[in-house]
Design brief:
This protein is mainly alpha-helical. It has one domain. The chain has helices spanning 3-30, 37-51, 58-79, 87-105.
Length: 110
């Protein structure tokens, strides 16, 4: 799988997971409608399905996905929560993405 396709798939997976967790948070913490639980459940189903589209072993996919999740979560913080990430936040993202790259794209014997 190409680097861009892998990153795009991980990003879509992260959005699905974050949305699936954010909607119940709105219901529990902000008093939003209980009906938000339905799209939340669908979003979490999409999250699980998207993780299965990677050809690597599940544990390696989960480990690599974590780096992209951190990155997308900070973008969510900025766009949805309205809090601009700091330089330290972005440095952390860089570390996570380097780790993700090592896990996902290192040469391996088949």
């Amino acid at each position: 799988m190409s680097v861009l396709k892998t990153l795009g798939l991980f990003a879509a997976t992260a959005v699905a997971e974050i949305l699936g967790c954010y909607l119940p948070w709105l219901w529990l913490r902000q008093g939003a409608s209980v009906w938000l639980l339905l799209p939340a459940a669908l979003s979490l189903l999409a999250f699980v399905w998207l993780l299965t589209l990677h050809p690597a072993a599940a544990g390696r996919v989960y480990a690599a996905y974590g780096g992209v999740y951190v990155s997308v979560a900070l973008v969510w913080l900025w766009l949805v929560d309205g809090i601009k990430p700091t330089a330290w936040d972005w440095a952390g993202v860089l570390v996570c993405l380097v780790g993700m790259g090592l896990i996902a794209f290192a040469p391996r014997e088949l």
